[in-house]
Design a protein that fits this description.
The structure is a homodimer.
Chain A: H1 2-5, E1 6-7, H2 33-66, H3 77-80, E2 89-96, H4 102-108, E3 118-122, H5 128-131, H6 137-141, E4 149-153, H7 162-165, H8 171-189, E5 193-201, H9 204-216, H10 227-233, H11 235-249, E6 256-260, H12 264-282, H13 293-302
Parallel strand pairs in A: 2-4, 2-5, 3-4, 5-6
Antiparallel strand pairs in A: 1-6
């Protein structure tokens, strides 16, 4: 799946990727849309259980490496500072147009894992304090600690997307950020963070339907903001900004993947697969005991 | 359930609460242990779905109150600073002896909710930096922001439990903490945090079996540490420390609940119920639109 969905290393043409397509979906599931959906949902459940086991191994290994007295939580920026060679954490970066399905993907895919080992951070418009720093400052503070699976709901890529389209900074500033992002991500991957960068790719028509749903269902009004339509009016500009970001920052160490996302069940299945392949690479296992197991059993049973 | 499981407002006798009992479990489920277990697991699934909906309303309401420009994540200590009257977040505080089932409860109960709206923090031995501050310092920094469901995996109560039993601080210090905790929790509940404090109550025999399982199954070795047996040797001291903490800090604003936890399926069902009753109290709903719905529909469909 990673090779199939990967873009970059050249110009990216988003218009050539059909948001309703289902690359990599096995033929066994390729009958009616209803049966494919049911099959994919069941697969996500199974994949989620497998991801949960791998997530536990990742966590256990990091705990063992940190030593017994290490705090098991309340992660701080200091804990998350990179500095180790072997990949010891995974970071899923999710980007999409409004209504692209970031929240739904997190609910379904991350929701299948153990919440104790998840480190989810969402990035809205930067606060006044955040604006006083470099654009990567708040990103660094949000990195997952060793052993965790991080999820970024939006990310530093907003700083070359919305910042560019809405002219929040001069062109020279956002143009320089491609290299800054690449350097930052090289630093991350070199120090134990395995990046999985995903753009959820929806069509203009599908966004329209989802926005209409938010305007029709009162339980969805809270997800809508009038500025969503202003962004929609600049659809072409955003697609161009995405294409350039994917092209400029799709590196071998941290490639970009485009997941066709008009079909939610395919989207979830594809993202779960990308995570699964990433975990498989890490060749995870449970750490060996750092104590004398037989002696402890004697202590316990004699006690 | 809250009234049934509540302790405090007088001396607490943990020995009088059977860790294998199942208070509040409906008679319909009271046949064989196997069928009760299946029934409870299914109920937790259903309760989880309901909790997920209520969690979304809590989140949506907080988002609407914060205004459209508010960052939707990357919670900071400043975001979490109390200051509002109406309850706008829930904080589940979990305490238990080793192997008491805190992690399992989080996986099963919190895992049924949307991970985007969860704020889970675990507290291990304080770091050097944390020890330079008041014991509540790291707790304040870990509070959930408005709209979130927080879970504390251990908490400030360790500072009157392990700190007392292991003599980490002088008696005068930990004795003073009961009042400090009560003042702190009064401040929290007065400013929008609804506390759900739960002690998972297991028996000495059940702990022995679970420790043996961790020593027997190599995939569980990482959860074991030889110091677990040292704590087990002081079981009586810990039970006494728990009893006094529950008694001294079981207030009307922030009561303590003891959940019999030898049976994992009952434990999960009871905790899910406590959360459900807490959410029901909040009388949640979706916020009304703060924009002209008809006008936005026209804009969308005309575009």
């Amino acid at each position: 799946m990673r090779e199939l969905l990967r873009v970059g290393g050249g110009a990216v043409d988003l218009a050539a990727i059909d948001p309703r397509s289902t690359p990599g979906l096995p033929a066994v599931a390729a009958e009616g849309d209803g049966s494919r959906k049911a099959w994919a949902r069941e697969q996500v459940r199974l994949l989620g259980a497998a991801l949960g086991r791998q997530q536990e191994m990742l966590y256990a290994t990091a705990q063992a490496a940190a030593g017994p007295g290490a705090p098991t939580g309340a992660p701080t920026a200091a804990d998350a500072a990179p500095g180790r060679g072997r990949p010891d954490r995974v970071l899923l970066v999710l980007q999409a147009m409004d209504c692209g399905g970031k929240d739904g993907t997190i609910r379904r895919v991350a929701g299948a894992m153990n919440p104790l080992g998840l480190h989810i951070r969402s990035f809205g418009p930067p606060t006044e304090r955040e604006r006083r720093h470099d654009f990567l400052w708040r990103i660094r503070r949000a990195l997952p600690p060793p052993g965790y699976v991080g999820v970024f709901n939006r990310s530093h890529y907003e700083d070359v997307l919305i910042a560019r389209v809405e002219s929040l900074v001069p062109e020279a500033t956002w143009r320089a950020r491609y290299d800054e992002i690449n350097a930052f991500e090289r630093e991350l991957t070199g120090s134990g963070v395995r990046l999985v960068k995903v753009m959820l790719h929806i069509s203009h028509a599908e966004q329209g339907e989802r926005l209409l749903a938010r305007l029709t269902d009162p339980t969805k009004h809270w997800k809508y903001h009038p500025s969503d339509l202003d962004s929609r009016a600049r659809w072409g500009d955003y697609q161009a900004a995405y294409a350039e970001a994917l092209s400029r920052c799709g590196t071998d160490a941290a490639p970009w993947h485009v997941v066709p996302a008009d079909r939610k069940w395919y989207r979830d299945w594809a993202v779960a697969h990308l995570l699964r392949e990433t975990f498989d690479d890490l060749d995870l296992g449970y750490p060996p005991a750092d104590f004398d197991v037989a002696a402890e059993r004697s202590r316990l049973c004699g006690a």
